[in-house]
Amino acid sequence: MPAPVTAAAPLTEREQEVLQGLAAGHPNKRIGSHMGISEGTVKVHVSNILAKLSVGNRTEAVLRAQELGLL
């Protein structure tokens, strides 16, 4: 599992965009449509976000991102 988000392992620009979609409560399909990427690619980004934030689900990711000032 990757290390939690730090200056050395920040979220990518795309991961930050996906995180915004998660925070808005959008499903993967809608996030992908908005970003012009496939639902599968969104799932990969979500998995990366969960790993980098050391959380187990989308809700925890949003809460952790808020704690870290990412949202």
UniProtKB/TrEMBL annotation:
Keywords: DNA-binding, Transcription, Transcription regulation. Residues 4-69 form the HTH luxR-type domain. The keyword Ribosomal protein does not apply. SUPFAM superfamilies: C-terminal effector domain of the bipartite response regulators. It comes from the Bacteria. It holds the Pfam family GerE. InterPro entries: Sig_transdc_resp-reg_C-effctor, Tscrpt_reg_LuxR_C, WH-like_DNA-bd_sf. The keyword Nucleotidyltransferase does not apply. PROSITE patterns: HTH_LUXR_1 (PS00622), HTH_LUXR_2 (PS50043). PANTHER family: DNA-BINDING TRANSCRIPTIONAL ACTIVATOR DEVR_DOSR. This is Response regulator transcription factor.
